[in-house]
Structures are given as structure tokens and as C-alpha cells.
Amino acid sequence: MTLEVSLHVIKSNIKGSGRMLKKFLLGFGLMAMLFPTLAFAEDATPAQLETAINSVWVMLAAILVIFMQAGFALLEAGSTRMKNAGHVAGKTILTFGICAIAFWAVGFGFAFGDGNSFFGTTGFFVSGLEDQAAAAYGSLSGSTVPIGIKFLFQLAFAGVSLAIAFGGFAERAKLPVYFIFAVLFTVVIYPIVAHWVWGGGWLAELGMQDFAGSTVVHLQGATAALVATILLKPRIGKYNKDKTSNLIPGHNQVLSVLGVIILWIGWFGFNAGSTLSAMGEGFFGYIAMTTNMATAAGAVAALLISWMYFGKADIPSMLNGVLAALVAITASCAFVEVWAAIVIGAVAGIITFFTAQWFDKAGVDDPVFAFSVHGIAGVWGTLATGLFATPELAEKVGVGGAGLFYGGGFHQLGIQALGVVGAFAFVLVLSFIVLSLIKLVVGLRVTEEEEIIGLDLSEHGTYGYPEQMKKAGQSASV
Amino acid sequence: MTLEVSLHVIKSNIKGSGRMLKKFLLGFGLMAMLFPTLAFAEDATPAQLETAINSVWVMLAAILVIFMQAGFALLEAGSTRMKNAGHVAGKTILTFGICAIAFWAVGFGFAFGDGNSFFGTTGFFVSGLEDQAAAAYGSLSGSTVPIGIKFLFQLAFAGVSLAIAFGGFAERAKLPVYFIFAVLFTVVIYPIVAHWVWGGGWLAELGMQDFAGSTVVHLQGATAALVATILLKPRIGKYNKDKTSNLIPGHNQVLSVLGVIILWIGWFGFNAGSTLSAMGEGFFGYIAMTTNMATAAGAVAALLISWMYFGKADIPSMLNGVLAALVAITASCAFVEVWAAIVIGAVAGIITFFTAQWFDKAGVDDPVFAFSVHGIAGVWGTLATGLFATPELAEKVGVGGAGLFYGGGFHQLGIQALGVVGAFAFVLVLSFIVLSLIKLVVGLRVTEEEEIIGLDLSEHGTYGYPEQMKKAGQSASV
Amino acid sequence: MTLEVSLHVIKSNIKGSGRMLKKFLLGFGLMAMLFPTLAFAEDATPAQLETAINSVWVMLAAILVIFMQAGFALLEAGSTRMKNAGHVAGKTILTFGICAIAFWAVGFGFAFGDGNSFFGTTGFFVSGLEDQAAAAYGSLSGSTVPIGIKFLFQLAFAGVSLAIAFGGFAERAKLPVYFIFAVLFTVVIYPIVAHWVWGGGWLAELGMQDFAGSTVVHLQGATAALVATILLKPRIGKYNKDKTSNLIPGHNQVLSVLGVIILWIGWFGFNAGSTLSAMGEGFFGYIAMTTNMATAAGAVAALLISWMYFGKADIPSMLNGVLAALVAITASCAFVEVWAAIVIGAVAGIITFFTAQWFDKAGVDDPVFAFSVHGIAGVWGTLATGLFATPELAEKVGVGGAGLFYGGGFHQLGIQALGVVGAFAFVLVLSFIVLSLIKLVVGLRVTEEEEIIGLDLSEHGTYGYPEQMKKAGQSASV
Fold this sequence. Notes:
3 copies of one chain form a homotrimer.
Chain A lengths: L2 H15 L1 H10 L2 H4 L11 H33 L6 H28 L34 H21 L7 H24 L3 H5 L7 H19 L20 H20 L10 H28 L4 H18 L5 H24 L8 H19 L2 H7 L13 H31 L6 H6 L1 H6 L5 H6 L7
């Protein structure tokens, strides 16, 4: 059978067997000769198709994580008082806006630019956008997703960490503080720790397992929140003279619930999107599944523990349990089996409940329990990876080794603990310095009178709910 | 022209014609010999690319359907009273959490595991995750999407059915009832009917057309809601002594509207995602389009009919019309033409309006009209498929045949009717048994005093809206 | 080396080199002869895979843009008064439903059907759905995404333009007006201008750069809003006898903030989805990035300018700044560098602030500032493209040339200005005619008494917030 004959066979099969054959024949340079009237569209290569698929997946993930700003706005507004609601919701958009500019200019380069073990020294102003493939971000080169999408995805993470931090400022910090701290956190705090773990820094070299940022995103934000809530001191009316604490309930549980569901679905982008790839036989789906199962367990466990402890099934406690489980599974989602994810989530829900009680009693007024939910659960999640990581999954991800319960001894657990301590200490010190300086220069807290009338009026000049506040006998604006 | 010559031609064309050729040549084993210095990156195969695309699409669909929990939380909270709002919203998260654990452990295996014509007997605890391709779920093997994502997608459906069921419990059921019923519905009710239709059971063998679950998801949930609302009896104040009914308006139409829009977009995942594939020249897009057009028609038809009937364009009626249309097009979305989708949606909006009035007058206090919206429209949608299914689309989907109006006679319609009757009878009996047992053991309904103060206080100890309720002269907590 | 020998080599390599080879051999028709026992699954071609990827991306984008209806419902409800909240939110669903039917029947054909330079004359009732590839929409043929998805995407855009228009009707138009205007805008206004720019019309021929519709969608909707707000006259209580204006604050900033975040993420679909493709090395990601950076700049700039001007950092002004930046970057997102996007967004936030003040003082009561936010910023964004478009990006997109600041002279800027003037004049005249006719036949505005009790009661018979309004001493229904 000659090649020419076989080409005639092709001709009759060409509709059924598709464009690949045409391509092949073009490669031989025979096509134009034999079928001069046929014009073939240029087909995409497998590499181009793979880039496109991964780009769609990571873009979807980035959108979901940016949407988490709505989750935080609703959860924080719902968990605080009506007189501060407009302020709380509005400042979320403001600080994400500031974060975006600062992260574009400086933060992204510090975090993911090539540099040393402590910070990146290239890639400021997100260089390399024109030449997507060859940008100066070695730590992100494992994925072919273009830099524009990688930037949005990483910006969304920085924005989440910052939103967590601001939980500790709620109901009493001055508006200018949000401006200054947003810039400094985005420029000199968050990207440094991100570089350590994800940008090729010293914790990456040690093999720390923090898949989507229990430590990088959550513990960091929570540590800054803890420093803020301590420096700002408790809200007026929170503690009595005998040091017993009063409940200051949030004004709208429906908004809080909506916020938490938005965060739940946002976390599918957060964790499963951190693959930066849709290939690998659906590994991102496995991660979405561990994430979901941990969260379900956290919801149920936290509600039950509050029921046993308070005698009432407390909804805010359940919402904290959902978030704590999400935070805890963030480090481990790609490293653990499903049953372990359920254990990690349930334990997170329970320890967060008790630590929230403990901080409240200890005189730390953390209005939305930012440190318990994102800090304690962040520590637990990071350590839990060192307990439950399976050798197969660690190999698949390509980071670190098996956890204590899977024959890895204390090696991985030790690295995890070192990462937790390092990140906590760094953020504690830096946040303390930054906030102390802000306190010195512009002050941190509004006046007593301003706090009593509420930040909607004091910082923005109008209530967030003017009609409802007016009905309560207050004037609608100052 | 020799093969060797042609390979030299290839060499000069290699940049333009892409990596496919390289692959081809690697297959010949000649590459290393002829071009020893060239290194080729391992390219993804078409099968791997297809799996990745389908996985991204079904993951997106799963996220949209899970987000529907927010839709139900908002719609149900907005459609009930302020004193129950925190409870209604919060229990949505709780019951989805319970459902996730129960469906993972048992329900998914019963529904989609290989087994007999009535239920699956393999795949409990979602086995086969490590070896994505070879899992024990024959009924899902038509799609190459990995099991983790298929599980999340199917879990989201079970969660929707459960959320519908709980509509019938609103404003008077005790919290423990939600725990127990959530487990039993997820384990012994929902997966059985799902197996019948989607898991290779007896209705699948007959060729029942229920593309995304008008019967499997909606009629099932609604039937449980009907049993619950009858067993629980009407809310205090709903009916007068002369059996006339009072309107108990929902407290927040804005939240209801937001909930309905979330459900609308969630349904693109629900219906179009049920292809479990993004291939097929965009067939999922066609399904999204029929879904959208039916819904638009349902919205307009229901608003107009309420305007004619009440003299006022009633917004809750319109919202019910939107949902009824979505429910009705769920079975038929892949089987019918666009004009038929519009008819199905409009009719759903109208019959749901009148049946809601009828049930209200008949003394059935279904607070969010769960049975009219999801049950009656579910029946209509399932039967409508037997009327409007085109032979081309039935063949494309590969399930059943043409409907009555397209020359299929009464055959398909009969199967649809049989499916409706079978599912309704099964769920009616099982729900009655389950709820009667719960009633016997722990009781179904809160006390009269608890119902009057509201479930936020009675079941959870604090109002969902503490400041607003306090202004109305009520204490913020018990 | 004979072909037969090489086929034996293939046989031994067949597992490693993947399915492409099998396909190739099937093409030769030799497979059955040589390996009669092997059955090969049919692999997808690169073209099919590309279609699937693009379809998933554009479907996601369509869902995001349809979700923007929730954004508008929340923003508009939050920015108006409690007595109108149910009406404002509910009518959003109603008008999107009407728009969907009208756009399916007529609008889509006028806009994208093949025709002349002014409107399309084919494709009514979205013909060609069965044969996805060969539909009668030449202007959309650059993308292989199937018509069903293209229709949904374009419908979502028409729905956004209509929602913007209705901003000008807020708090005083009669419900029937919404019905009639929704049909006429969708049928005879929006699709004409869309055809000019995107459907192969005269502005397309001139090379106007309006990537996602600063003019087509936003300026159009805003111009209709301006005509409406002028014809409807100011709300009762807005202006004093001395022509000074009173602030009528919106009732719920938390809902407004949520609405704006939904719009922000929806815009990733709006702008980046307008590529109608996920290929091109992630160009859609670059567009998402310029969109995001402009928006961040708009938020910060608008808050700062309000702070300087009012002495208070005004949240509604910031929200307007976010939207104005989004509107402005809509035309230019694909044509400009990131730094230019930041400038465009910041300038949009500032000019929208001042023009909103100016219209308010000039006696134009535009309740949600629709013309300032979508009109002025739409003009600015369209002109800005003529200033900042780079030659490389203009070539990449394939529309128009470089802007004034990149060596293009006034040519492109002139075309942009012509497009703005043409669209503005056309919509101004058409809207004026349409609304004047409606005014003549059914009237535009509710009675004074109806406006005072609110549109929830007057148009729908119940409050959107019955319990809260009742507490304020008003009866819950009429």
C-alpha cells in the first residue's frame, strides 16, 4: 500500500477522523499539493489547550476568593451592631481596593518574585505581563497559567488575610488606621511570610506543608487581629468592673449566615484552586471534597458542643465552627484522607469554641473571634498536616513527607511547628511595631463619644441604616 | 517520496505544525535517533484534556448548586417572621453539614453504587477515590469526571432536596427533629429514589426522563415537606375558627429576591451541569438556555396571574413562579425545544399559583409553599417531558423516546406518570413512618409558648436580630 | 523502512504515545484490518476541546453577568427607602424575565443577526440552535462557542443595560411602565446600538473600540435613565422651594455594599468574558486584571475625594466610584496597560463624584445616580480608550488603532467620540419618544398619595418589610 493510496483513504475518512489528521498531513507538506482547494483552520496544540483549561479554573478560583470579601463584609457586619454596620461593610471594599494597588506595586514582587530566602526582589508592578511565559516569578513557574490570573489569585489571598486582620479592629478603630495598616500589611507583612512558604523561601526549602495557607493567610491575619484587639482595648460596655464580660450580640444572623455560605463556596476556590491546575486526573476535585467534608464536620461539632456547654444550640458558635474547620483544612486539604479531613474539621470546631470562650474571659475583646477562628484553627490545621499527611499525597503534591500517624515520625510535624512559630513571631512583632507607630502618630481608636454614637456617624457622616436608626430615636446624620 | 524524506520535511515544519507531530514521531521511536538533541515536554493527551475540561465544568456546577443553600436560607428566612429568622437561616448550614456526612457515609453508595434495581450496595464512604477511574459506580461511568467531583455534585443535589423538605417544617419544628430527619432522609429516602432513576434502577431501565430531577430532587423533597406540614399542623394564628386563613407575610422581600436570584443562577449548575460533561458541541449551553427561558416565562406568568387574581402584582407569587418554572424545566431541560420550555415554565408559574391558593384554603399551612412550588411543579415538569420531548433530543440524551406531541404516543408519558406515582408514594410512606416515629420518640413541635416567642429564642437562646427585636419591646435573649 | 513495518513499531508504542496515534490509524482505515480485536474510544479533536473550553468560560461569564441582576437589585434597594424595597428588588426579576423573552424573540436578531449597517434582519427566535456552527450570526462567528451560550451571554448584557435604565425610574414610576419600557428597550433601543458596534454595523466598520460596552451597555442604559428621571420629575420631598436639595438616604448600606461586590465579581464575566474565548495565552486574564486594578483605584479615589469635599468619607460615594471605574474600564479593558487602567478608574471615580453633585444641584433627581455612574463614566471610558489604547493591544484585539498618547493621533479618539455622540443621541431621542408615548397612554408616575405610602403597598399590596414597617406605626397591607 503506497502513501498516496493511503492519502486517498484519508480523504474519504476526513470528516469522521477530524482535524488532527489534517494537521498531520500539513506537517508532511503534501496537503497543499494534493488538495489545493481545502483550507484548514489552525488547531490549538495540547499545551495551548492545557493552558486555557488551567487558566479558566484558576480564574474561577480567583473570582470565588475575591467574592469572599462579600462573605467577610456580611459576617463582620452581621456580627456587630447596627450603628457600625455601614462602616464595617463599606471598609471591606475600601481596604480591598487599597490592598490591590499595594499588592500590585510591591507586595506581589516581595512574595513571589525571585530573590532570597526571606523575600523576593523582582517583579514589582507585576512586570512580565506582556511576555506571560517568561516572567520573573520562578516560584510560580510550575503552572502555565498566565501572570495576570496568578496575580489576581494571589491578590485575593492577600485580601483575605487583610480582611481577617481587620476583624480585630472592629467597632472602635479610626478610619485612617484602615488606610495605613492596609498598605503596611500588604507591603511588609503578608508578602514576607508568603515568600517563606510559597515563594521559595526558607520554609519552602524545609518542606513545610501549607497547601492553601492555614499559616500563610489565616494565622497571619489572625495574629495581626490579636495585636490590634489588644492594643485597641475592649469596646465600651464589654467588661464589667468585676472583669466579667457582657455579650454584645451581632445585629443580623441572616447576613452572618449568608456571609458564611459565601465563604464556604469561596473556599473551593481557595483550596482547590491552589493546585493552579485542572489537570492531574481531577486532583483539585479531591481537595474540594476534603475541604467540604471537614467543613460539614466543623459545623455539626461546633453546634453540638455549644448545645452541651450553653444548653442552647448557638448559631454564632456554629458559624465559627464552619470557618474554623475551613481554616484548619486549608493547610492539609491536599495531604490527607477524607476521614482525616472530617477529624481535622470537627476538632477545629471544638477547639475554636473553647478558645473563643477562654479569650473572652481573659479580657481579650476580639469582636468577631478572629484569633480563635483563624489563628487557633490555623495553628491546628498546620500541625494537623504533620499528623495526618499520607506519604502518597505528600509525594503527589511534591512537598514534605508523611505525617506522624503515617509513619513519618516527628520530622514533618517539627517543620510544621517551626513554620507556625516563625510566622506567628514575625507577624506579632511586625504588627506590634506597625500599630504602635500608627498609635503614636495618628492614634488607633475613636473617642468615647464617637464609639457610642457609632462609626457610621463618626467616620462616614450617615447611618448605614438611616431609617431604622431614626425610628430608634436617633438622628439620621450628624 | 520516501518516509525519510518526508521526515526531513517535517523537521522544517515542526514549529508551525505543533506538538502533535512530535508526539506522533515519538510513537515511531525514530525521534531520538534522528534529532537526538531535541527534548519534548510531555504533552497532555486528548483524553486527559477532556477529563480536565469536564471536571472544571462539573466542579463549577457543584459550587453553584451548593451555593443554592444560600438561596434557600435567604428565601425561607425572608418568607418567615423576624423572630425565627436566625433559626431558619442557621439551620440551613447545620442540615447541609449533617447531609454531607450522611451522604458520604451511606447515601452516595445507596444512590449510585452498583447494586440491584432498588438500591446500590457498594461505594459506601465514597470508596475508589484513590483510583478515580475504576470506582464502583457503574451508573456514573459515562462521565470521566473524577469521583470526588461527582460526589460533591450529587451531594449538592441531596442537600437541595433536603432543604426543600425542611420548608414544610418552618416556624414550628423542634431543633432535634432537624438532626434526625436530615440523617434519615439522606440515608434511606433520597438515595433510593435517586437510584431508581439515576443509579440504574427500575425507572432508569424503563427509560424515565428526569434529566436533573424534577421528580428525584424536587417532588421528593416536596412530598416530605407535605407530610411534615400535615403532621406538624398549622402555625398558631394561621387559621381562624371559621377555617378562613390569615396571611402571615414573610419579613423581608429583599432577602427573598436575593435568594431567588441565587437559586436561578444555581440552577444553571443544576440543569446544565447534569450533562456531567462540557463536550458535545455545547449541549450544556442549550440546556442552560431552555432553563433560563422557562424561568423568565414563569416569572412573568405568575406575576400577571397574581395581578389578575388579587388585583395587585404580588411579589411572593412571582418568586414562587420563578421557582416553579425552574422546578418544571428540571426534568425536561435537555429534551425539549425552546418554545416548549417557555410553555412549560409559564404553565408551571400559573398552576403553582392556583394550587398554593388551594392548599392554603384547604387548611394545609405550608409556610413557604414547598409542595406547590416543588411538588406540583415537579409533577408537571416530569409529565411535560412526556408531552414535549423531541425524538432528536431524546436520542441525543440517550434516555427514553419522543413525547406525546412529537409522535411518541402515550408510551413516554406513561413512564413519566409511573415514575411520579412511584416516587410520590414511596416518599409519602417513608416520610410518614419516619416523622411519626420522631413524633413518638422526641416530638415534632415546639410548645405554644416557644412558638410565640419564636424559635430564635426557644431553640438558640438569642434573637437573630437582637437590636430590632429589642426595639419592638422584647428582651434580646432568654 | 516500509509503512507496514512502521505500523508494527506503532503497535509497541501505542500505550505510551496515546490516543492520537490510534486516531491517526483509524483515519487510514487500516486499524480494523491489522488489529481486529482492539477497540478504541473516540477521542476529542483539538477543535472540539477548544470549543468545550471556550464554552465553559463563556458560560461562567454569562452566569456571572446574570448574577449582576442580584447586584443591581441589592444596590438599588439599599439606595432607596424601606417603603419601596420589595418593589425595587422584585421588579428586577420581573424586568429581566420580560427582557429574556423579548431578546429571544426579537432583540438578539436585531443586534447580532446578519443585516445592514443599522440592524440585523435574521436570527429572530434564536434560529440555528440545532446546527450550532452554521447559525445566521456572522458577527459572532469569530468564536466557536455555541449559539445557546452566546445568546445567554448577550442577553445578560441587555439585562444589565435595562437594569441601569430602570435606576432612573426608582421610587415613583408605575408598575405597568416597567412592562412596556422593558419590551421596547429590549426590542428597539438596545439591539440597534449593539448592532452598530458589535453586530457589524457602521461603528464596527469605523473601528470603534468598545470592548465590553462602556457605550453599548452603560451609556445606553444611563441615557434612558436620564430621560426617565427628567420626564418623571423629582421625588416628593427631594427639592425645597428655594431649589436646594435634600438628601434622601438609602435605607441599607450593607445591602448596597453586597450589591457592589456582586457587581465587581460579575464584571470579571462582563469584561473578561467578552473575549468569547479562553485561548490566546490567557488574554482574558489580562483583561480581568486591568478591570480589577481600575476598580480598586476608583474605590480609593472616590472615597478620598468625598472625604476632602464633605469632610466625611462617604460610603455611597465610594460605591459609586467602584461602579464608575468598572463602567469606564469596560470599553478599554483589552486595549490599555495596567497603569493606564488605574488612571482610568481613578479619574472615573472622581468625575462621577462631581457630576453626581452637579446633577443633584441642577434639579435632576436621579435616585441612584444612574447617569453619573453609568453615563458620564461610560463616556469617559469610551474616550479614554482613544487616549490610552496601545498599538500592540489594538492589534491583538483586531479593532481600531493606537490612542492619542501612544502615537495614534486623534484618529481613534475621533471615532470614539463619534460613537459616544451617535449612541447618546439615538437613545436620547428613542427613549424620549417611547417614554412620552407611555406617559400619554398609561401615565408614568404613581399618584402623590401612592408615592407617600410607598410602591410596596401601592403597586404590590404588601410591604417588603411588613414587620418593620408595622412597628413604625404603619399598617402592613392595604
